[in-house]
Design goal:
The complex is a heterotrimer of chains A (361), B (292) and C (365). Chain A is an alpha+beta fold and 361 residues long. Helices cover 24% and strands 31% of the residues of chain A. In chain A, helix 3 (98-108) packs across helix 4 (113-126), helix 3 (98-108) packs parallel to helix 5 and helix 5 runs parallel beside helix 6 (173-190). Chain C has a six-stranded mixed β-sheet with strand order 6-7-8-3-9-10, with helices on both faces. In chain C, strands 13-12-11-14-20-21 form a six-stranded antiparallel β-sheet. A five-stranded antiparallel β-sheet of chain C has the order 15-19-16-17-18, with no helix packed on it. The chains are: A alpha+beta (361), B mainly alpha (292), C alpha+beta (365).
Amino acid sequence: MASITLENLAHSYRSDPKGEADFALRELNHTWEDGHAYALLGPSGCGKTTLLNIISGLLQPTRGRVLFGDQDVTQASTAQRNIAQVFQFPVVYDTMTVGQNLAFPLRNRGMDARYIEERVQRIAQMIGLEGHLGQKARGLTADLKQKISLGRGVVRDDVNAILFDEPLTVIDPNLKWELRTQLKSLHREFGHTMIYVTHDQTEALTFAEKVVVMHEGQVLQIGTPQELFEKPAHVFVGYFIGSPGMNFLPVSVQGRRAIAHGQTSALAQDYGHPQGDIMLGIRPEFTRLTKGEGLPVMIKRVQDVGRYKFVNATVFEREINIVLDAHIEIEADMTKVSLDPDKISIFSNDWRIDPASEGKL
Amino acid sequence: MTQKTTNQRAWFLVLPVLALVAFSSIIPMITVVNYSFQDSFGGNEFFWVGLEWYRELLQSERLWDALGRQLLFSSIILLIEIPLGILIALSMPKKGWMASLCLVLMALPLLIPYNVVGTIWQVFARADIGLLGRAISDLGLSYNYAQNAFDAWVTVIVMDVWHWTSLVALLSYAGLRSIPNAYYQAAEIDQASRWAVFRYIELPKMRGVLIIAVLLRFMDSFMIYTEPFVLTGGGPGNATTFLSIDLVKMALGQFDLGPAAAFSLMYFLVILLISYVFYTVMISADNDGAAR
Amino acid sequence: MSLRLQGVSKSVDGDAHIHPLDLELEKGTMNVLLGPTLAGKTSLLRLMSGLDKPDSGKIYWDGKDVTRHRVQDRDVAMVYQQFVNYPSMTVYENIASPLKMQRRSAQEIDAKVQEMAELLQLTDLLHRKPSEISGGQQQRCAIARALVKDVGLVLMDEPLANLDYKLREELRIEIPRLFAASGSIFVYATTEPEEALLLGGKTATLWQGHVTQFGPSTQVYHRPADEITARVYSDPPMNFLPVRKQGGMVHFPNGQSTPARQAVAAIPDGEYRAGFRAHHLEVGGDAAGKIAFEAKLIVTELTGSDTYIHVETAGERWIGLVPGLQTFEIGGHVPLCLNPDNVFYFDQQGKLAGSTPLATQMAGA
């Protein structure tokens, strides 16, 4: 196992990239620590798959280096990198049994038959395949096949890293829970470095210790699920993390006050007088409908979603979403929305600013 | 909802095809069935003989000999063309202009009519004036397809392989191209050998097209006529007298319409039967894998 | 306009895909078909559309028997999971195509296309080809093409399943709006309970070719008629444990008991399966009136604001969704509790015998 270092890494699919816009992956420096679980999160076309392919050796980066431990593997083939990968669609050897599938990577490496047998049994048990070992792989359901792919990934104990490329795409919602927990258990048990690519924030946040949020070829923020949720570094992170995402209002900020259309919202801290396009960001979970204080709100739709009430509304003709506790009654004279000052984020030109930090920007 | 009566006009569009099929296949077929139960003496006189022709044919060595030759020929053709076709498909480039060029080159033999193929090889392999035949003779090997049965067989087989291996290769190539890249990547990660990649990924994924290739090549080789006919007319002796050549000899050469009709019906049934067996065996082998 | 299915069934190669079922969809309603893969959602949509003919039963549109009518003669449009557009046409031509087939005037077509494009935020993309726009935009285009005809019945088969998570979220908010603007009957198939609730309207839960329950979405969610419906309508999966009711008390397997209140008081004594949803499991000791459990922690998953806890207790695997970031030791013991008012009691046949929570929650919904 090894840490993975990305040094001045950038990639363009053009042969003569000119500006930033030509790069599918903009310059990036980062180290994935040994034995940790990471997620690459972003919408289609954000560059996350490009980055994954560079790490797996499928793609040679235009610039920069990839290091596994201290070893430069930029030019090394996939096989030389000693990694495992689980793909979006289950890749299994149809004509083999489940057991043979799991044993395949070990057999190819000339491992001892007894060791293989024992290892396959152990892995099968951990991912709930022990009852299927003798079956042909081809007739199995998508979730069982994906378990086989997963099993083939973790069956070797010497892999440098396991890469996951949206592995739950074809899995039913109910079964995702099981696979996700097994993945976590495997990570805890074996301590492989794991990198998980997805567009699904729930999968990314629940899986990873640290999530890398990408957008348009650029890494916007690397942080724990909590950091991404509470302190998004960029408006896109605010929007992309959380379901529904963060609400934004254009405001002007003066010290501890944010002003929109002459209406004031209190801020918990002093932001000074920031310049640029200033946005106030507030998560739907931290808004409240009130009868008195707050900004004027027009409620458009209220939907009981079981665990909470989902309110779609507008404030100064901008759409906002409000999430309320399931027990809260919405009354006709609730015409204002109040924002929790502690939970407000302020952004200048799309990037987060910290209280009284305007001088540094 | 808009109310519209279902109209039957579509049937009229199918009529021409139905008529064509009726005149080209169904009616001649019924005529053949009719002939097979009758004897004829010149002119248009027919006598009912019942199953006589069938009985006679089943007892004649002529039919069994031809059938034996035919089965041997088809087996050899399949054993050569299927592996060779797969091998060619595997070594074809996957993309770029080279791939397109290969595809065009591979398709060329398929566009040449049977009799032209036969004529080309007949001349090409002649021991006296043919380039190939002469070259072999000059090497000190005795080679003459017109006199030596073994040489005649080799020539017909080489001809067929040259003509039809492309088809197997093209079908296999299409099968190979449809395998997602992730499989190759997974195999590389698993450090599978080249043979293992073929055995566990490529072969299983090509299975569908290979079934079609085997069926096509079997049926077609089982009906081979033109090539041996052009080359030696079924000779030397009866060495390359395959079923269809024998049938034509009987029907047109001897004008034995009754036995020829019975022969062709049995021929037809044999092809149908073997193809059906092939098909069900291969499909069920496929399903066995799929079921649990 | 209404669609009525009467005793409709469908088998393929002896495999029953849809068991005989009755369903009536009223004018201008949003109807969600909720069920896991292979529950029969697509089969049912195909029967509704006329793409397949039922083996038995009748389908009425506006009271008229249309069972044997072809799709082309029915007043339906369909949106698929795959983005189905004409690749060689621009977005404009794609949206206009159904109207052209109806031989509408150029002016009318243009007006309608512009209106649909506006509604689906495609105005700037009208001159592009489907291959030049994103997946989300392609699906918007497909939806626009389905809606532009003004048909009475719009069928959507997991239309958001192939989209990025965030795009899904946006379209989920948009679809109810489109529905409200159209006045048609919408039928929307999905595997996700939350999607069904967000779309609102009515839900029919499907399981192995049976409609297990049909009613207003929130009502089916809060008052599932049986265990299967409750399972289908829970994500994370519903948690279960065996209980016994005896003499006005409900006894839990860990020795605790609680007085049977309200509707639960009326159910006969005996064995039941108690079910509750993930967010009703609470972390903490025995608060008054709650059932306390000791559970072994298997895995925790953080979502940023909440934590999913996977626990094992008395041989049952449960998933809890608790607010805040909980950092327990994996393999350690966690004190949990459960408000008995949030529990459904299912009898041995899987039917809902009783539950208390709903009285309070339904009043607010």
